[in-house]
Amino acid sequence: MQNTPKSSPEGSGTRPEGAGRGAPETARASDNATPDSRASSGPTPAATPPALPRPASELSGRLASLAETAKAYARSAQADNTRRAYAADWKMFASWLRRQGLAETPPDPEAVGLYLAAQVERGGAELSVATLERRLSGIAWRYRQLGQPLDVRDRHIATVLAGIRRRHGRPPLQKAAVFADELLAMLATLDMDLRGLRDRAILAIGFAGGLRRSEIVGLDCGPDQTEDGSGWVEIFPEGALLTLRGKTGWREVEIGRGSRADTCPVALLETWLKLGRIARGPLFRAVARKNGGVGSERLTDKHVVRLVKRCALAAGLRGDLAESERRVAFGGHSLRAGLASSAQIEEAHVQKHLGHASAEMTRRYQRKRDRFKINLTKAAGL
């Protein structure tokens, strides 16, 4: 591992620029000059120092304002969940370095490789390779922000990570899909108060739109209404049009009206907006337990996860599993996977609706897909 050399005090052991061989030669030339030449030459003008950039505190009002604007754009470069995850990743890594007596800077690839090995040793089978790769991304991102990039291709990192992938890599665990009949059972477990009406709309819109949990809570009542919004909804007589900014860019999702008002996603959303008196800003908000009032802050995506888990358990879904297994079987992606598995239409339409970049990703969500519809064995004549 690298040992950072101690910086010497200013001026010690270092000659200032121009004080090398030129300085003695100037002195000798001065010694050889005659008194008359010295007198005629006059005093030597001092060299003009180079202009130094002004510190940020001395920027003009216009530049200072632009600096704050640039910082705001930089903060918006990543989703809130990504920023929180990266911050947690760095905090864990920095804490491990302190316990080992190692410095945070400069970045040491060998120390990072040891940290990855320690994480696997500590986490065991519960720590997935994908989580470990995400933690490495968080560490590398932090070092880039410090202006000291970490070379993740260094052999101390790359070979260790390759070995971890080979020994501990496994297929990703998929959340159980919630199908249409199961969704109806989940809706029936909710109360008819304001909080229950909101949660009904969340489940129905999330399922019908095939939305990610972050997309559900990121919806606003209209465009350009909040800084942290990631989309908005427009309601028409035929249904609702959602404009979303997802992982693959902007996309539009159309949700048609259902046949029954008590299960129609659009009707449930309209009921929530009307009774919650929401016309602008975040679509889904917290409801106070004491007075039942609707707040102004949007819900977090964790609410969607807890809601799906709670309703799935209350509805008795996957009763064949143990209680502990049922608790981890369902999550925010259960709604999205449920629509992909339930929709009996061409795969290309499902792919577009979900906003997937490839058909292969869409197939991962289809839990009841006919995997042997195309039989290459028979096609080859066997």
Write a structural description.
This protein is an alpha+beta fold and 382 residues long. Among the domains are: 91 residues, Orthogonal Bundle (DNA polymerase, domain 1), CATH 1.10.150.130; 160 residues, Orthogonal Bundle (hpI Integrase, Chain A), CATH 1.10.443. Helices cover 50% and strands 8% of the residues. It has 17 helices and 6 strands. The strands form 2 sheets. A 4-stranded mixed beta sheet has the order 1-2-3-4. It has a two-stranded antiparallel sheet with strand order 5-6. Helix 9 runs antiparallel to helix 11 and helix 12 packs across helix 13. The radius of gyration is 31 Å and the shape is globular. It starts with 21 loop residues before the first helix and ends with a helix. The relative contact order is 0.08. The N terminus is likely disordered.
The CATH topology of the domain at 180-339 corresponds to hpI Integrase, Chain A
Low-confidence stretches: 2-53
The end-to-end distance, rounded to whole angstroms, is 58 Å
Q: What characteristic shape results from the CA principal axes?
A: globular
Q: What is the share of helical residues?
A: 40-55%
For the secondary structure, the number of strands is 6
Number of helices: 17
Biggest sheet: strand arrangement: 1-2-3-4
SSE pattern:
HHHHHHHHHHEEEEHEEHHHHHH
Within CATH, the superfamily of the domain at 180-339 carries the name Intergrase catalytic core
